[in-house]
Amino acid sequence: MALRIGVVIFPGTNCEHDAMLAVQRLGASAELVWHGDGSVAGFDALILPGGFAHGDYLRPGAIARFSPVMEAVTRFAAEGGPVVGICNGFQVLTEAGLLPGALQKNRGLRFLCTTTTVRVETDRSVLTSGVPIGTELRIPINHFEGNYTCDPDTLAMLRAEDRVVLRYVENPNGSIDDIAGVCNAARNVVGLMPHPERASDPLLGSVDGTVLLTALLTSVATPATATVA
Asked: Largest Cα–Cα distance of the chain, in whole Å?
């Protein structure tokens, strides 16, 4: 039976169909989950895709964190369910306290829409399990507030606990320590600013994103591969 991936959407989300198509190409089934829903029962993994949740009128993700679905997402994550937040989804996860740190405006106050190279820094997360450390991937970014920041103690913790999942090879937005993605302590919640779903078709110029999405689906099928060693 195909894995069931829930793609959580908020008013303003605009990458949900890209995410669904990307995982469907890899053999999973995908269904939309509305932000007002109170349950995510029956799903094997959740993706919070990119966009502009609630218009980002306060801070990106700051309003979305109060949506009813986030209580269900939090429970799902606490029970070990894989959760991946992409771009705006990453912002939502930090605002909800499921990931440390925060996302602020890009260095130079410029909106960025380009392709970047990221390097896999750990193979101990649901998004990178089985991917060799040091693997470089060409994946697009599309954000104005993708500059990851945290306090010195949090940064030291992320480094010490091997929780930096991806780093930019050439930092495009000013993110501290070149961080492009991080995970939680249990390694089942991952947030990243680059869009792997937009690098999943040769017609889009790259299939490097499928490396991460395949790792996610493999982690779901064999969860022990993503646990702490």
From this structure: 48
Nearest-angstrom CA–CA distance, 176 and 179: 6
Q: Cα-flanking dihedrals φ and ψ of residue 149, to 5°?
A: -140, 155
Q: Is 17 a catalytic residue?
A: no
pTM: 0.95
Domain that holds residue 219: 4-226
Residue 84, domain CATH:
3.40.50.880
Which candidate in 35, 54, 143, 195 is catalytic? 195
Catalytic residue chosen out of the listed positions 16, 35, 54, 87: 87
Length of the chain in terms of residues written? 229
Yes or no: say if 152 and 179 are a contact pair by the CB < 8 Å rule: no
pLDDT at 224: 60
If DSSP codes are grouped into helix, strand and coil, which group holds residue 13? strand
The domain tally of the chain equals 1
Token reading at 92: 């939502």
Give every residue of the chain whose pLDDT is below 70, as ranges: 223-229
**Residue 195 catalytic?**
yes
